[in-house]
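Assess this today:

___
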Amino acid sequence: MTLTSLRQQLLAGDTTPAAILRQLAGDIATRDSQTGAYLSYDLESALAEAARADLSLPLGGIPIAIKDNLNVLGQPCTCGSKFLAENYTSPYDATVIRKLRAAGAIPFGRMNQDEFAMGSSTENSALQVTRNPHDPARIPGGSSGGSAASVAAGTAIAALGSDTGGSIRQPASHCGVVGLKPSYGRVSRYGLVAFASSLDQIGPLTQSVEDAARMLQAIAGYDPLDSTCLDVPVPDYLAGLHDGVKGLKLGVPKEYFGEGIDPGVRARVEAAIQSLAAQGAEIVELSLPHTEYAVATYYVIAPAEASSNLSRFDGIRYGHRTSSPADILDLYKKSREEGFGPEVKRRIILGTYVLSSGYYDAYYSRAQKVRTLIRRDFENAFQQVDAIVSPVAPTPARKIGAFAADPLHEYLSDIFTLSANLAGIPGISVPCGTTDFDGGKNLPVGLQILGPHLGEAKLLQIAQAAEARREDHP
């Protein structure tokens, strides 16, 4: 059931917000053990909100699942980490939660994720394993794996996630749902537990493009509590949704179709691009020449910002505190050693190194210069085309544990998504078929569509055309 069709049922009186919540709770109880998407949910609080729901509002009475790095008043916010799992309850609502509530939605459920959003598989969660609903032996993607898996499994109507290097789009691709990363500055980050502040962005994971447009309409807009949030008008994302792609130019970057792409992924993505061409779009080959430096650039900038952001987790103010420390220094060291998982420690160490005296100019400063070159690549490309189309990930969902001893290989799985975060542009993943991979059958594949900064309206328009003509091929 999509958000859009469920809203029609609510307005027609065919169901109620309370009935929807009870149905979801029943589905979670019987089916979530297979996926492990939910960390927790509070049915009684949600039912209290449902009793007050205003169905005249755009999302009136609709439950929305929330990634566990977004603060919701009175609820846990573990970030998938032992550090916050023990005793932290959020004292406030994130701005996106306030906006959802203002649109009538009911926040419901805390979704599993990679610890502090650091990962591409949700295997880095310190709390539980989340599995892909299409094949329980495989990852759902990450870091918003719980959000994507719940929508794909039908245990959530729609969900919020966060995207720092592909963490909405990649799990959306792996789970066969729609995932939208808005432009940097389009959606307030206030209340999102920061991973990398210049890269993080909040966005929806939904069952349809129209649902994504409705969600973005609700959460977009200026917020004085976030200095990076832009004070610019928010367009009507539904107005031109069905205008099609006739006359639009779509760029195909040669760097995104090189070695390393699974043949099934390539075939599904190319078929989706040809479908858009058949609807009247002009396909233009182009180059994004600095793509080869994107992974290295990202894994200097993101850990550096993570190192700074996570310094607040010290065992003093909130979160895990070690028992019986010898002194204050011992308290800091042991609290962080016990509270953080291996991937978070790895990135903190890397980030601290690249920011340290003697290495700042060699690594962090140089990475920022390369980031500018990557952004200029996209600016030049969008002078030629309306949007860029590509794969989301080189392969479908891999098996759980396949990269346990090879984190570098995992980092390379983000090669097609993280450039959008470095450039601050919007991107969306739309299902474009299924393929077989590494013993798995009919695994979802996503088509990525990237647009110019604040170009979400046209991005959604193109995505709607891709969704409308999509055909799944086994």
